[in-house]
TrEMBL record:
Keywords of the record: Cell membrane, Membrane, Transmembrane, Transmembrane helix, Transport
Pfam families: MFS_1
Single GO MF annotation: transmembrane transporter activity
The name this protein goes by in its record: Predicted MFS family arabinose efflux permease
Segments passing through the bilayer: 21-45, 51-73, 85-105, 111-127, 148-168, 174-195, 229-253, 265-284, 293-316, 322-340, 352-373, 379-401
UniProt cross-references to Gene3D superfamilies, sorted A to Z: MFS general substrate transporter like domains
Domain Major facilitator superfamily (MFS) profile: 18-405
Keyword Transmembrane helix: yes
Chief location of this protein within or outside the cell: membrane
Organism: Bacillus oleivorans
Locations listed in the record: Cell membrane
Membrane topology: Multi-pass membrane protein
Superkingdom of origin: Bacteria
């Protein structure tokens, strides 16, 4: 209770020291990540002449660590001090990127996969710590608005990131691109230094073993119906997204018959939609429940994916991509708000560490076979299968929607006691 009274800032989110530091850190991280992602993608496309398997392995390197390390990272995030964890993760990410750069200069080109892999592993320890800081320092009534602003930042980079990443790679090459990525991670660490000092948290970390903490996290998720159903939704949506995540570039080159560089424009349209969607969610943050945002966003995105798979017209594909971007903040903000509002602070890391692998693990599973399946089936079949799985996942949210609408008032009253 003492912590809550300190964290409430009536003057607004941007007067919150923690929120400002996380936003500035996020800006540097997004800059580095987008430059890295597009540099690696275009570099691998050059080296392999557009081999679908090689391209899909980039996404595997990015998302596989989430499946493998997320639960462990989330458990440690509940045991460790969040500021120190985030700073050291960014520093180690920068060191690993510079090590990859040195190896790339004197070794083989395949090492670029490690630039994505290592930082993705470290982010599994850093990301849940950031969620804990939101829970610790933002009052509950500001969480959804804070998440809206945070996701809007990601949306801005959906527009600018592909353009910047493509420009940097084409202008300076892979070596400079990787160097900029490492520098951006270091700047993110510097921004996080301005977070308030970690407070000493009384926990069972000194008594319980790591295994006991992990076990209690699983029991906590299973004891809450909303979190369990959210996990089933994550599982099916992840399976669906895995089919299409590594194949977006082939949607441009094969379905639309355009040069590969035009992928950046699909990302740009998607990002514009995300910016507008995030702004809309901010406007209605206090009136629209997060479960309603999530349901509506999943329904529309499922339809949008189906349209993209069938379309051979550039403008129809762009329109579907825009609508998907418009609805994506509803999904992201709805999910994060539900997790933060319905999870005790001591379990934030573990809940995030359990739900994320369900989504990402299933996505990595289908992603790993996406390049092979594309050769056996049509690109259209891949996108339509994804849409169907996405809509089935949405159905699991219907009981959650009804339950939360009925119990929301009771839970809010309970939290005020």
């Amino acid at each position: 209770m003492e912590q809550q009274s300190v964290s409430v800032q009536p003057a607004g989110l941007f007067r919150n020291r923690v929120f400002r530091a996380i936003i500035v850190s996020g800006l540097f991280l997004q800059m580095g990540i987008w430059i890295r992602n597009f540099a690696v993608l275009l570099f691998v496309m050059e080296q392999t002449n557009g081999d679908a398997f090689a391209v899909s392995m980039i996404s595997v390197a990015e998302f596989a660590p989430i499946f493998i390390f997320s639960f462990i990272g989330g458990t440690f995030a509940d045991r460790w001090q969040p500021k120190r964890t985030m700073v050291w993760c960014d520093i180690l990410s920068a060191i690993s990127v510079f090590a990859v750069l040195v190896t790339l200069i004197f070794g083989t080109w395949q090492v670029v996969f490690f630039a994505t892999l290592i930082s993705a592993i470290l982010s599994q320890f850093s990301q849940p710590s950031g969620m804990k800081l939101f829970k610790m320092h933002l009052p509950e009534e500001q969480i959804q608005a804070g998440m809206s602003l945070y996701q809007t930042m990601f949306a801005v980079f959906m527009v600018l990131g592909p353009i910047i990443g493509t420009f940097v790679f084409q202008s300076f090459g892979i070596h400079i691109s990787i160097a900029i990525t490492g520098t951006a991670f270091l700047l993110s660490a510097i921004a996080l230094v301005f977070l308030p000092p970690d407070r000493k948290v009384e926990s069972d970390a000194a008594v319980n073993t790591l295994w006991q903490d992990m076990k209690s996290g699983v029991q906590y998720v299973l004891s809450k119906k909303e979190l369990s159903l959210l996990g089933l939704c994550f599982l099916l949506a992840g399976l669906g997204l895995g089919f299409i995540q590594p194949l977006s570039i082939f949607l441009v080159t094969e379905q639309l018959g355009l040069p590969e560089e035009n992928l950046q424009w699909l990302f740009m349209v998607h990002g514009v939609g995300m910016i507008l969607g995030g702004a809309c969610v901010m406007m209605f943050a206090k009136t629209v429940p997060p479960q309603r945002l999530l349901l509506f966003g999943m329904l529309v995105n499922g339809i949008g994916i189906a349209v993209m798979g069938l379309s051979t017209n550039l403008w129809l594909t762009l329109a579907a991509e825009f609508i998907n971007g418009l609805m994506l903040p509803c999904i992201q903000i709805g999910i994060n708000t539900m997790i933060l509002q319905r999870t005790e602070e001591a379990f934030i890391g573990r809940v995030n560490g359990i739900l994320s692998p369900l989504f990402t693990g299933s996505m990595v599973l289908t992603m790993s076979f996406a390049g092979v399946l594309k050769k056996e089936f049509s690109l259209v079949a891949m996108f339509e299968t994804s849409a169907i799985l996405f809509l089935i996942g949405m159905l699991f949210m219907l009981p959650l929607y009804n339950q939360k609408m009925a119990s929301n008032t009771q839970q809010v009253l309970g939290s005020q006691e």
